[in-house]
Amino acid sequence: MLQRLLSDNFIPTADAGVGALAVSGLSVAYHQRLVLRDVTWTAPAQGLVAVVGPNGAGKSTFLKAVLGLVPSLTGTIEVYGRPLKRQRALIGYVPQRESVDWDFPVSALDVVTMGRYGLIGWGRRIGAKHKQAAMQALDRVGMADFAHRQIGQLSGGQQQRVFLARALAQEARLYFMDEPLAGVDAATEQTILAVLRELDAEGRTVICVHHDLQTVAETFDHVLMLSGGLVAAGPVREALTEENLRRAYGQRASGLLLGPR
Amino acid sequence: MNIDAVTFLSVDLPALLAALFACLSCALVGNFLVLRRQSLMGDAISHAVLPGIVAGFLVAGTRDTFPMLAGALTAALVAGVMIELVRRLGRVEAGAAMGVVFTGLFALGVVLIEQGPARQVDLDADCVLYGQLEAILWLTPGGWSDLADPAIWATLPRQVLQLVAVFAICLTIILIFFKEFTLVSFDPALADTLGLKSGLVQHVIVALAALAAIAAFEAVGSILVIAMLICPAATARLFTDRMVPQLALSLLVGGVTGVGGYGLAAFGPSLLGYDMAVNAAGSIAVLAGIILALSILLAPRYGVLARVTGRVMRGAAA
């Protein structure tokens, strides 16, 4: 707690007690197929949340529906007690790396600066202050030396770090990340995990789709387990149980937590 | 060969200016189609608006811009809905749906031209394909010295003034919303989470492309519109990795192609001793294609030659 108070980026939680994210009765369909059914869940006011579940469980869809990127059939979303539309400035998003065209003629710094566009305002020029903030975000993920590289000339891990830096540049309070650790090199993984811990220490909430069940307990405080709907949610120790895993993954669940260690 | 001042000023200069500004508008807007990998959209727009232009013309009975523009925008909307319908009901990919709809609408436009009273006036199928660059005349200036008088520029033919205005509109909007257009083209999902409606911006981009296409259509025809929406932007992409140089280079390529292509068509044959002129819009489009082909071969980093030699050099080093 002391460390948290001393940190420059500490965010006082005046509205303590209000969850970072309150989802109620969320259902989503893709091509006439119900992907998520009636999810009701309140995220903790602060901490790292892993969204887990088998392939096709609707993890990415959950993030996208919460962010309003895909239409939902039913449900309401509240961010810090207010409708999402009025709280966009508090939200940061790290999409899956495959979601954009990396041949696009922009540099790493250009991409990170895009994270500041909401703060800059539409139709306004990008001031030196914002360039500087973008540069600091790149530095935080160890990518300052690559600022002027075209994004297609970066490795997969470096591209993922650029996406993370862009989210940092947003200076959000609640982050959504879609598999930021998928297929990255060891150095990138260390960087991303360190940044996640920093965000946590600063009092922010990170909701992160995560595919590796074995590392959930090391990094995350909370779990949201999905499989076509809500299976379990809560602190890792309580929610990540053999029984819940069996309900989410079926019989394949046996041994998922132990793994070859 | 000799060209006297009055002929140049009354025939070649207005055609050159029309070609130049048609190319500049299309080249500028085309960047956002090419970078979003929606080049086919340019093709679709320039074809699909034809029945709208003809209908606007038939209803209004004049060649004024406004009715034709209104018709073209209506046709563009109808095309958008039809493409979506064909895609869903026919269960085909978007490219196939576009291909069916825009060729169909273009054919409808040609039928309308042939059947309607348009036949009695100067709207025919040739003009649709190749435009009427050579028919744009500026009869006011009597010599070079007249150009010093600012008032005389206001007497430029309607088509030229329109093309200048459309270019000014496209340039202004893109300069003001450069960062928004770039963001939406690169990552529409991020734009949405930041509260910028990506769908709306994408519609503005398509509307600008339609505006540039419609304005250029009358002067230079549909073939040139398609070439000019795609070729300059695709050429520029081979020489740069940044957005600002990308836009600047595409304008340079578009301008050089427009002026150069017209020059080749108007003066090339007589330089070679033939007493004829080639179709200007056609030769501009051909020149655009040649410049793109040469760039694909010779561009410093992304050219075929550079990539092959790069591979050989790396092979030798390893």
Set out the fold topology.
The complex is a heterodimer of chains A (261) and B (318).
Chain A: H1 2-6, E1 21-30, E2 33-42, E3 47-52, H2 59-67, E4 74-79, E5 82-83, E6 91-94, H3 108-114, H4 117-120, H5 128-140, H6 156-169, E7 174-178, H7 186-201, E8 205-209, H8 216-219, E9 222-226, E10 230-235, H9 236-239, H10 242-249
Parallel strand pairs in A: 3-8, 3-9, 6-7, 7-8
Antiparallel strand pairs in A: 1-2, 1-4, 4-5, 9-10
Helix pairs in contact in A: 3-5, 3-6, 5-6, 6-7
Chain B: H1 5-35, H2 39-48, H3 50-60, H4 65-89, H5 94-115, H6 125-130, H7 150-153, H8 158-176, H9 178-186, H10 188-193, H11 198-237, H12 243-271, H13 280-298, H14 304-317
Description:
- The complex is a heterodimer of chains A (261) and B (318).
- Chain A is of the alpha/beta class.
- Chain A has one domain: P-loop containing nucleotide triphosphate hydrolases (Rossmann fold, 3-Layer(aba) Sandwich).
- Chain A has helices at residues 2-6, 59-67, 108-114, 117-120, 128-140, 156-169, 186-201, 216-219, 236-239, 242-249, and strands at residues 21-30, 33-42, 47-52, 74-79, 82-83, 91-94, 174-178, 205-209, 222-226, 230-235.
- In chain A, strands 6-7-8-3-9-10 form a six-stranded mixed β-sheet, sandwiched between helices.
- In chain A, strand 4 and strand 5 (82-83) form a beta hairpin.
- The model of chain A is unreliable at 1-14 (pLDDT under 50).
- Chain B has 318 residues and is mainly alpha-helical.
- Chain B has a single domain (5-317), classed as ABC transporter involved in vitamin B12 uptake, BtuC (Orthogonal Bundle).
- Chain B contains 14 helices and no strands.
- Chain B has helices at residues 5-35, 39-48, 50-60, 65-89, 94-115, 125-130, 150-153, 158-176, 178-186, 188-193, 198-237, 243-271, 280-298, 304-317.
- The longest helix of chain B has 40 residues, at 198-237.
- The radius of gyration of chain B is 21 Å and the shape is globular.
- The model of chain B has no long low-confidence stretch (mean pLDDT 85).
